[in-house]
Amino acid sequence: MPMKLFSRRGQEMDESEAFIEVDALAMEQAGKSSIGIKVEKLQEFEDTDKVLKAFRSGSIVFLNIKKMREKDLGELKRSVDKLKKTIMASNGDIVGVEQDWLILCPEYARVEREG
Predict the structure, then answer these.
(1) Cβ atoms within 10 A of the Cβ of 108, count?
(2) At CB < 8 A and 24+ separation, what contacts does 28-37 make?
(3) Integer Cα distance of 32 and 25 in angstroms
(4) What is the distance between the alpha carbons of residues 40 and 35, in angstroms, rounded to a whole number?
(5) What's the confidence (pLDDT) of residue 43?
(6) Burial track 50-88 (b if 16+ CB lie within 10 A, e otherwise)
(7) Is 11 within the bounds of a domain?
(8) CATH number for position 102
(9) Is residue 79 assigned to a domain?
(10) Structural domain of residue 88, as residue ranges?
(11) Please, what are the averages of pLDDT over each run of 10 residues along the chain (115 residues)?
């Protein structure tokens, strides 16, 4: 059964709500015994390498891009392009959530999209 994130205790999530499905068998084969989740901030282009290091370590990364979006859209585009290129090359997944967040998933996890 898929694991649902962000549900509150005592509240049911309906089927239309998005969730991340983690393939436990793929994780086991990759030598992972637990799921690492990191929260990072992208404030300038140089932070991109730190984010990629967390991603390459096998962690799911919740990336806050608000400061960079407000500061310099050109630099944000460069950073996101670099992230996408690396993530797609490693069969990962990247998705935007609202305007201020990205979720970066390694190969063993996918973000389900509506529609």
Answers:
(1) 21
(2) 30/58, 30/107, 30/108, 32/58, 32/108, 35/59, 35/60, 35/109, 36/60, 37/61, 37/62
(3) 10
(4) 16
(5) 94
(6) ebbebbeebbbbebebeebbeeeeebbeebbeebeebbe
(7) no
(8) 3.30.110.150
(9) yes
(10) 41-111
(11) 44 51 61 79 95 93 95 95 95 91 91 76
Beta strands in 23-111 (DSSP E): 37-41, 60-64, 93-97, 101-105, 109-111
95 assigned to some structural domain: yes
33 within some domain? no
CA distance 109 to 37: 12
Report the number of distinct structural domains present in the chain: 1
CA 89/CA 83 separation, integer angstroms: 10
Torsion sign over Cα 14, 17, 67, 49: positive
The encoded tokens of residue 42 equal: 């992208």
